[in-house]
Amino acid sequence: PRYLLVFDFDETIVDENTDDSIVRAAPGRALPESLRQSLRQGSYNQYMQRVLAFLGDQGVTAGDLRAVYEAVPLSPGMPELFQFLSKHRELFELVLVSDANTFGIEAKLRAAGVHSLFRKIFSNPAGVDKRGYLTLGPYHSHKCPECPANMCKRQILAEYLAERAREDAEFERVFYVGDGANDFCPSVALTSSDVAFPRKGYPMHRMTQEMEQKQPGAFRAAVVPWESAAEVARYLQELLKK
């Protein structure tokens, strides 16, 4: 493949934050206030571990959660983008880097018929324990001051590129499609031949604009904001014509 295409998941591939979506499986489709307040005490990953334990205690099964993940809508234009990428599989290598969890991501990608497009999925490990509860762990630990304790996407991307280089895969360009503050960190490490696709009006987009105002030229990648992922497909289509 000539190009590496890196995707985020929540509010990028899918049009919701799936950590919020799964609350629909709870009795009354809501979490107790005390549980919601506990997010303020630190790690988001640990908070989601508590949310999953609460759902398990309420009798919510892994199957119930899978059904919620499968039903989460794709973002506008995402089916067109995947259609384009499946036509050009030999040119694009796809990886997914997400602070969600492997269980939900794989359920959704399979339901959407696009799981096989991805060479690798980097996310927080999730599985079903003896009680039938969905459990969650952190992805890794790192030293980046900008990112949540359980995941630095810049480190994941850097390690992946190094690993692929050892396997003699050289990419002409890296494309990064995301929306969140944790997608800004890896996109700052992109080079001038790469392209960042921030979702319009989301934190990654605002942060690229702020960096460009404060330190012109410091953000090296081209920035192509999108409202519909069909715009990303059109950009890549034009690139292939050149």
TrEMBL record:
It catalyses: phosphoethanolamine + H2O = ethanolamine + phosphate; phosphocholine + H2O = choline + phosphate. The gene is Phospho1. GO terms for molecular function: metal ion binding; phosphatase activity. Belongs to the HAD-like hydrolase superfamily. PHOSPHO family. Its EC number is 3.1.3.75. Its cofactor is Mg(2+). The active site is at D8 (nucleophile), D10 (proton donor). Keywords: Hydrolase, Magnesium, Metal-binding, Mineral balance. GO terms for cellular component: extracellular vesicle. Mg(2+) binds at D8, D10, D179. Transmembrane segments: none annotated. Its main location: other. This is Phosphoethanolamine/phosphocholine phosphatase. GO terms for biological process: bone mineralization involved in bone maturation; regulation of bone mineralization. Gene3D superfamilies: HAD superfamily/HAD-like. It comes from Neodrepanis coruscans (wattled asity).
